[in-house]
Amino acid sequence: MLFVFLPVVLFGTVLVYPLLRGTYLAFSSPHGESFSPNPDRLSLINFQFLFSDRLFWLAAANTFGFALLVSLFQIPLALILAFMLRSIRPAVMPFVRTALLSTHLVGGVFVGLMFLQIVSPSVRAGASFDVLSDPRFTLLILCTITLWTTVGITALHLQSAMRSIDPTLYDSARIDGASGTRQFWHVTLPAVRGTACALWLAGIIASAQLFELPFVLYGQTAGPRGSALTLVMYLFQTGFASGDLRYAAAIAWVMMLLLLVVSVAFVRVSGLARTQTN
Amino acid sequence: MLFSAGKILPILLLLGVAAFVLLASRLIGSSTLSQRPDFIVWTFSPDRVATYRDSIDVAKFKSITGRRVFVRLMSPAVLNLKLGSLIDLDQPTDALPDAVEIELSYLGRYFAENETDAGSAVGLLPLDDLLSSSDATLSPARLENCRFLNSVFALPLDVHPVTITYRPDLFLAAGIDIEKATTWPMFIAACQAYQKSSDKNTALTSGIRIGRRALGVQPFNSELAMMILNQRGISLIDSTGKSRLKDQHVLDVASLCARIIASDGIALAHGAADDAWASDLASGKVAAIVTPDWRAQQLTRLAPELAGKVRMMPLPVLDPLFDVPTSTWGGTVIAIPLHARSTTDSLTFLRVLYLESQQPSELLSANTAIWPKQPLADAFFSGQDICQLQTMLAARVKPRATSSNAVIAQSLLADVIWRARELAEADRGQWLIKALTDADAELSRRIEFRQRQSN
Fold first, then answer.
1. Which of A130, A278, B81, B159 has the smallest CB count inside 10 Å?
2. Alpha helices in B159-207 (DSSP H)
3. What is the pTM of this model?
4. What is the DSSP letter of B22?
5. Residues in chain B within 8 Å Cβ distance of A55
């Protein structure tokens, strides 16, 4: 009993209590600010405003646009990379693994600062060339950096899954005259489908929480034409710059619900639950 | 069996934990404060840690109260997150500092637009009595930034008058005396003439031939517009809590800024590095930079090669009769949390260190212009007495109203200016009227929401 007491207390203090408090804030409206002698009252005013808030929907569109773009490339690129790793000699493998892992280990802020140096403005031949100030490039920059950071580690996860495939399956395929591509489609892909789908879902959830990169690249601004305003960035602006924690809590709840809908839809469409059960 | 012991135990455990956490939070909240000997000051400026450490006034404060001053340094975002959370608790707690320095742009976070009772709206201690009992001269404009519902909740520590630092060698090589450009249209015309001339004589940097721009700015935020609006005494949300985005003055400034940052304009966005503004000026990428007073001090350190090659001039104005040739850029205020351990000691701290200080220049030399600054190396600025210039301009800075919706207001204005930058000059006026009207409606709706939240 004592062994579970500490973890459960920690869980309750740092997770359950903030969650309950956040729910209370999202569904309450003060009479005055928090210094009012009158108690808070239950209210849906934060949600009513949120559904007609242009900036919230802009942030949602930016966030899910980003998540979609990243998820379109992340798993396919990682799959190709993982498949290519099979042909690398075992002696060099530790170095390759370290190299692939290193992009993930350096952390979002460092990567953001590094890319900031690369994409920072310059003036050439008298014409301004500033990708950071051009809203058409925002999504592209964010996606490129995210893929650079995540494809390596995703490939390593997939490679682990591939290593558990029975080698006799490949032998049989080869005897049947299957080319490398056909082996990939008919042996590798079905075998790692469950892992790939789980990683895909994790990637979508992580992408929806995008914050450090736009924060580092664009400061606390929403970027050119609001193109770098993500849901978490908007939550930060609302809760911590404007001090409206109640509205920020409402944003967090709606964001969680949106993610839940996307996740459930993904699980249904991909058959992930079935794959995991099998 | 429907409810076996194995099933009930985890539920009971979770309920027990929830009860424990709630009880603990109540107990912690209502516990009596410990006898903490230190006087805790929160700051976000590394420079100010040193000034507190070395100040004689801090020693004087200790001799009066018997409390040692301990300074905690944290980033502005973290500081305001912690302070905001503690203030939201609305009760005394050991974690609250005795005094706290707040970056001016965050101050609005503590003010709710709708309140009629200032004491209940702000978790900071009103300082009106302290100020009325003192004969210290504080910048009226800066004091206005700390005022909310007719009470002052913080003391301004600096003014940060803004000027333009420029390279006379570059402008004179193009035959231009930029100091004669006293209005923004004249300044833009002079800068365009400079760019046209320098195109023939481009600089070679890292093997790449680069063109030159006249003015270094940040194009996708509203800092430039906010600076020019402050020259005119306009705040995007005025002291009555109303949006002024539709105001003719805002329209004029938005149009001017769009012209400045347009691709055929005069501005270059500084690079990513913190000191890019200094290196851009040193390399000649830009010939002028917007300069809050602290940048002038940093420039001597970041670009020593510019010694004797730069001068400083007041800001150009839009309307010579109405505008002032300077503005303000951020700033620091010091406040006392409403539930600070001993508000008497905290008020003594402010009185001794800021209102009766015998050594204001020592304590405030990091970034202030309320009192005369430490002399900078005049030789660096081509023999110009920039200290005198900044002190003279500091007295003319106009007030800026602070609001919890200021971040959103600036974001909306930045978006409008950004979209207007690529429009043809002839179409820009009409388009801006519509865009600013839409932005005003958006902001007003948001202000109204904050009011409805509380009513």
1. A278
2. 168-173, 184-198
3. 0.78
4. H
5. 408
